[in-house]
Amino acid sequence: MASTLDQILAVLNGAVGDMLARTGNGLQLEMGWFRNGLPVRPERAALARAYPEATPRVVVLVHGLMCTESIWTLPDGSDYGSLLARDLGLTPLYVRYNSGLSIPENGARLSALLATLHEEYPITLEEIVPLGYSMGGLVIRSACHAASRTGEPWLDRVRRAVYVGTPHRGAPLERAGRFVTRVLRLVDDPYTRLVADIADLRSDGVKDLGNAVLHPDHPVPLLPGIRHYLVAGSVSHDPLVTRLFGDALVPVASATDGGCTDGASLALPPSHIRFRPGLGHLALAHHPLVYDDIRAFLEERT
Amino acid sequence: MMQRWRGLFTLVGQAVDQGAAAVERVHLETARRPFGILERIPILAVPAQSVHIIHDATASSVYALIRIVNDAAGRTIDAAIDTVALLSDRGG
């Protein structure tokens, strides 16, 4: 589990990580594998030491904005990764990264990390199952898109991907923030402009969440050839509250890529989408009911 | 760990630097308004312009001094971190 310092750094990176990277600041987090709060070098020997029980199928867990891999921890100390290892024999690999970088930048880095994993994994890698929470899901989509353009061999190992609380169609809260900043800039007053400057300090990663920017060729559809599974939540069981607030950060229509609200353009089979009313955004990352959904998705025959 | 300490102090230095620049902008723009009104009154225009120039120069000097002291503090801390790193390397 990540230490308190690691979690403070994760928040700082989410807020101003792009600036930390630009200035080469030592507080920036480098993307990498972590196990029990410690980094694991992406080399065959280090991976073999960290995962003596490595299996041919792995689940790659990618956290969201301002988090570390601790976000996955359930109250009993388990997490989706360890439960999938117990129930389905998947080896869990946890990614930690600077969530303040732009999503395409993190996507490119994740693609490179998975390319190294494909080469260095201690045994033959049969399947990679990416599992992303919130922004992590967009980073996974961006990585897959980047890999499809360059023909990365690791992408052939991805047949299924799971997204939990991922804003596939963007996060309106960020778009509202952008709008407020623009309005503040229109006011010819130095104090108001100062407030706008402070509001504009948010990182590239946060800004990309507004419209779910995965690649400069935005928008990018869900990659064909992969079975995509989505879990969405909402803060209430009430349909009106659900429609208005979604899971508090991500609207249901965005987390389900339109699946729950726009039947005509439904791109995914209904069985690939699970909706959990009563579960807010944070709870989605570590809840037994969501694990049940993930397990059910991954038990489906490929 | 030293890399993180260095990063933390750099970040604090950048915050002071950019904070001073932002406050300077607000200060100068706020002062521009009353001076602008005075400068439109013919009898006061010339002295008001002179005072405006002196005010802006004084204010900018103070903010520049803050940035210089901040920069010097940053360099001193950097050197101290280098020394601590060197000593801990020698200590094994």
User: What is the average per-residue confidence, as pLDDT of chain B, rounded to a whole number?
Assistant: 91
Greatest interface: A-B, 13 and 14 residues
Tell me the distance between the termini of chain A: 32 Å
Helix-strand topology string of chain A? HEEHEHEHEHEHHHEHHEH
Helix residue percentage of chain B: over 70%
The name of the CATH superfamily of chain A reads: Alpha/Beta hydrolase fold, catalytic domain
What summary fits the major beta sheet of chain A?
8 strands, mixed
Question: How far is it from the N-terminal to the C-terminal residue of chain B, by CA?
Answer: 15 Å
DSSP helical segment count of chain A: 11
Number of domains of chain B: 1
Describe the global form of chain A. Answer: globular
The name CATH uses for the topology of chain A is Rossmann fold
Helix content of chain A: 40-55%
Tally of individual helices of chain B: 2
In the CATH hierarchy, what is the architecture of chain A at level 2?
3-Layer(aba) Sandwich
Structural class of chain B: mainly alpha
Radius of gyration of chain B: 21 Å
How many beta strands in the DSSP annotation of chain A? Answer: 8
Q: Mean pLDDT of chain A, as a whole number?
A: 93
For this entry, give a set of tags.
A: Rossmann fold; eight-stranded mixed beta sheet; 11 helices; B: 92 residues; mainly alpha; rod-shaped
Outline the structure in words.
The complex is a heterodimer of chains A (302) and B (92). Chain A has 302 residues and is of the alpha/beta class. Chain A has one domain: Alpha/Beta hydrolase fold, catalytic domain (Rossmann fold, 3-Layer(aba) Sandwich), CATH 3.40.50. Chain A is built from eleven helices and eight strands. Chain A has helices at 4-22, 44-50, 80-88, 103-120, 135-150, 172-186, 190-199, 204-211, 239-245, 252-255, 288-299; strands spanning 32-35, 38-40, 57-62, 91-96, 127-133, 160-164, 227-234, 273-277. In chain A, helix 3 (80-88) packs across helix 11 (288-299). The longest helix of chain A has 19 residues, at 4-22. Chain A is globular, with a radius of gyration of 19 Å. Chain A starts with a helix and ends with a helix. By secondary structure, chain B is mostly helical. Chain B has one domain (15-90). In chain B, helix 1 (2-39) packs antiparallel against helix 2. The mean pLDDT of chain B is 91.
